[in-house]
Write a structure and sequence with these properties.
The chain is 80% helix and 0% strand. It is an all-alpha fold. It has one domain. Helix 1 packs across helix 4, helix 2 packs across helix 6 and helix 4 packs across helix 6.
């Protein structure tokens, strides 16, 4: 190989290696920011205050049935609406969110879907909790792909009861 070509090739190779290193660092930084944000959301969801709220919701649902869902459940819906917005706009990775929130998101969507549809009609606002719904659909696809099971769109009544028995333990 001619030395002249080698001298031209080495700097180009150095630029390529540097570009790959910068790209890798960008990916690592983005992953780190995703983790930081999801952990902050997880801290909120699992804070003592929010656990008490979830337990109160659970107790109400278990004692009075789904028809008497208390207004506080909208605080949980709001959190998942925010998470959905972040995922939809690529501020959060949907697989990280699936890993962190799927069980709860699926449980709350299962109990709240019909009520959200009613709220949409009453308020004449089809966008109400649309990011929560969108996120549920995305995470359900991931759950089905990861487990190989045909996870139902909604929990059964028995599973809803079991889910809220678990949530009630925070009292």
């Amino acid at each position: 190989m001619d030395t002249k070509y080698l001298l031209e090739f080495v700097p180009a190779l150095g630029v390529l290696v540097a570009a790959i290193a910068v790209y890798y660092q960008i990916l690592r930084s983005r992953f780190s920011m995703n983790l930081d944000l999801v952990l902050k959301l997880d801290d909120r969801f699992n804070s003592a205050e929010f656990k008490r709220l979830r337990a109160t919701i659970a107790e109400s649902i278990l004692e009075h049935g789904k028809e008497q869902i208390i207004d506080d459940i909208e605080d949980v819906f709001d959190l998942f609406e925010t998470v959905g917005y972040f995922v939809k706009h690529n501020a959060l990775n949907k697989k990280i969110v699936w890993h962190t929130f799927y069980v709860w998101l699926h449980g709350y969507w299962s109990v709240g879907k019909e009520d959200i549809q009613i709220m949409r009609k009453e308020k004449k606002d089809d966008t109400l909790y649309e990011d929560f719904q969108w996120l549920h659909n995305k995470l359900l696809k991931i759950e089905r792909a990861r487990t190989g099971k045909q996870e139902p769109e909604l929990l059964s009544q028995k599973e809803i009861t079991e889910f809220f028995e678990e949530e009630k333990r925070y009292i």
